[in-house]
Amino acid sequence: MKIHKIINDAYEQLHKIKHNLAYLYKFLILIIPFLTIAFYFVFVFDYLSPEQDAKYGALTLAYFFPPAGKESVIPLMLSDKIGPPLPAWVVWSTIVIMDVISSAIIAYNWWLAEFIITHIPLLDRGYKALQNKAEKYRKKKLLTLSLLLFMIIPFQGTGGISTTILARLLGVRAKKTVMIVFTGSAITTTIWILWWLGFLNFLFG
């Protein structure tokens, strides 16, 4: 009897530990992206001059609000129209990191959105229907390419946040979603910076 009780107590303790670790994991997944972007901004603001700091802060904030996007923010960051130009590596890393961090926050905390969706019958039915349709494209391996193109092409409304929301609605895993956003952001940002710096002028004669 004592052995049986010890085994039951040990099982209950392991279950509690597992339950607590699940909550800890969700907490870390939520807080780590914010800490990462905070440390990055501290590093960049310390590296830039005071004049560059003001410009950097304003344009970085503007990037989160439509209609500002890569096509408008990157040229302004690299030019001297509003303050001294920023280093290309700062511009590249800032845009990509902001896209990836915002994507990670949404993708890895999608359980909250799903909790809301599944408790509203109309949304739940639409959510399941959308995932069923997405499965057809996933089997044809078109879904990843479609989402990547959606992320790369600089249309109004496309970007790290909208691509993440669309990908998760279509049932794409969080890790894969973030990788799609990273790849698309890196490609688009690199092209815009190279174009602005004149490295792609040969394409236009």
Structure description:
With 205 residues, the protein is mainly α. It has helices spanning 2-47, 50-62, 70-78, 88-107, 110-118, 121-139, 143-152, 160-169, 174-196. The radius of gyration is 22 Å and the shape is globular.
Any idea what the radius of gyration is?
A: 22 Å
Largest sheet: none
For the termini, the CA-CA separation is 87 Å
Helices and strands: which structural class?
mainly alpha
Order of helices and strands: HHHHHHHHH
In the predicted model, the low-confidence regions spanning at least 5 consecutive residues are: none
Percent of residues in β-strands: under 5%
Q: What is the helix fraction of residues, given as a range?
A: over 70%
Q: Based on DSSP secondary structure assignment, what is the total number of beta strands?
A: 0
Helical segment count: 9
The outline comes out as globular
Averaged pLDDT, please?
79
Summarize the structure.
This protein is an all-alpha fold.
Please render the helix and strand layout as text.
Elements: H1 2-47, H2 50-62, H3 70-78, H4 88-107, H5 110-118, H6 121-139, H7 143-152, H8 160-169, H9 174-196
Helix pairs in contact: 1-4, 3-4, 3-9, 4-8, 4-9, 7-8, 7-9, 8-9
Keywords:
mainly alpha; 9 helices; 205 residues; single chain
